[in-house]
Write a structure and sequence with these properties.
The chain is mostly helical and 449 residues long. Helix 10 packs parallel to helix 13, helix 11 packs across helix 12 and helix 11 crosses helix 14. The longest helix has 25 residues. Bound molecules: zinc ion (ZN) (2 copies). The site of one zinc ion has 5 residues, from helix 11. The site of one zinc ion (ZN) has 5 residues, from helix 11.
Length: 449
């Protein structure tokens, strides 16, 4: 197991649960998957009741409506047992369904919805396992339904390549939420103290709620735009950020693939001016909620028919299409669309790429492969040599050092052959001509059905 942690857990899960039976509706597959998820959440929830001092984040404990949580745990246990039995009845291989049943029964044995809270909870730091469970519940309900209702790529499996690695990213970033939040507010608080000293509450914090929220979105995205652009342009930062770009199949979980150092740097730098200006807690909290929903949504395997019909939506807000283009493995969308909320920033700074109806055919990074597995990804920036987004493993191909905007590594993905400079020039010319005839490297039109 220890060694396995360095690799992707995908093969392990497909060995334990996988079979070659159908996953279509009525096959018992969806029932089994929901049973395992419900059982996992129920058992995790009951454990948080039993051991709150170790598992839960102190900042959240007092906020929970306990009767609602207990009712939710009861429902999840029922779902795990009933759907697990349905799945085991329908499928030839019973592991999936029975795992759901076992998790549901384990949650019951541990105390179920009536699990008692300890009389005293220590003041210790506590992991944010509760925060992780809540997010898994809300995110799967919200985004899995969106992705089922209107998938961009219906052929993409739910458990696509690298899903377990991204699951660990989700777990670690949420379990460490308390520590991370304490760190990311430090620079802003320190600057506010040293610059403004004993100055009382700020004028910004007294402005109307919606006005503050709008100002926060603009300022935060302006900061994010330039930080994100630096992460693409500076070799040392691209080492970290290329991990986020390494997913070849996009879905909501892909948004979680981020190096921990990048998470801390980006969030601290975005929060610093907001704290310095002195916006109120309410608008800040509303912004953080909006930003987390938006950041996950733009990665989803989801094509909004509404956004496609209402062209103006993409002029106001970054949509999945605009951010998927940012993740394009090659073609003219590389190093474009850096903003996460407001496409107008990319328009302003000349980096918007969003021709109507165009989606990338391929996402990911070419050149040196990013390793699979959470810990291998966290270590990879300290192992790999320098490069930038558009110069990654690529410099020797640039004719006379001029940036050409096309990535040669992508031109022969199957052979990995490097070719002479003349070959490369020829291929680039060919690609440019193709682009002139309305075809763009690495992009496709996907129309709304
Ligand atoms: Zn990026
Ligand atoms: Zn992204």
């Amino acid at each position: 197991m220890g060694n396995r942690l360095w690799h992707s857990l995908d093969p392990f899960f497909s060995r334990v649960f996988g079979d070659d039976a159908s996953t279509d509706p009525g096959s018992g597959w969806a029932a089994g998957v929901i049973a395992v998820l419900a059982g996992f959440l129920a058992a995790g929830g009951v454990l948080c009741f039993r051991f709150p001092g170790v598992l839960t984040a102190p900042g959240l404990r007092s906020l929970y409506p306990l009767p609602v949580l207990r009712a939710a745990i009861g429902l999840l246990i029922c779902a795990a047992i009933v759907l697990g039995l349905v799945s085991a009845r329908l499928r030839r291989r019973k592991v999936l369904g029975l795992t759901g049943v076992c998790l549901g029964v384990a949650a019951l044995v541990l105390g179920g919805p009536a699990a008692a809270l300890p009389r005293q909870i220590g003041p210790g730091p506590g992991l944010g396992f509760d925060w992780f469970l809540l997010n898994v519940l809300i995110m799967t309900l919200l985004y899995a339904s969106l992705e089922r209702a209107a998938p961009l790529r219906p052929e993409q499996p739910v458990f696509r390549k690298g899903w377990t690695t991204d699951g660990v990213h989700l777990l670690v970033s949420h379990v460490g939420v308390q520590g991370a939040s304490a760190i990311i507010v430090l620079p802003g608080q320190w600057l506010r103290r040293s610059i403004l000293g004993g100055a009382g509450p700020s004028h910004a914090g007294a402005l109307p709620f919606l006005f503050q929220l709008a100002a926060i979105v603009v300022i935060a995205d302006l900061c994010f735009y330039w930080i994100h652009r630096a992460f693409h342009a500076w070799p040392l930062l691209w080492r970290l950020h290329r991990i986020h770009h390494s997913n070849e199949q996009m879905d909501w979980l892909a948004s979680e693939r981020l190096h921990v150092v990048e998470i801390v740097i980006v969030r601290a730098l975005v929060l610093t001016p907001l704290i310095l200006i002195g916006f109120g807690q309410g608008p800040l909290l509303a912004y953080v909620t909006f930003a987390s929903v938006q950041a996950v949504l733009v990665h989803a395997n989801f094509r909004s028919k509404l956004a496609a019909r209402l062209g103006w939506v993409e002029r106001i807000l970054v949509t999945p299409r605009i951010h998927h283009l940012h993740h394009a493995a090659d073609g003219p969308a590389v190093d474009k669309n850096f903003a996460i909320h407001l496409p107008v920033l990319d328009r302003l700074f000349g980096t918007l790429y969003a021709p109507p109806g165009v989606w990338p055919t391929r996402t990911g990074v070419d050149g040196r492969p990013v390793p699979e597995g959470y810990w291998a990804q966290q270590l990879s920036p300290f192992r790999s040599p320098h490069g930038t987004r558009s110069g990654d493993d690529f410099d020797e191909y640039r004719p006379d050092g001029v940036g050409v905007g096309l990535r040669v590594a992508a031109l022969e993905p199957a052979t990995g052959r490097r070719g002479t400079r003349a070959d490369v020039k020829h291929r680039l010319e060919h690609d440019r001509r193709a682009a002139g005839h309305g075809r763009r490297g690495g992009l496709e039109h996907r129309t709304v059905r």
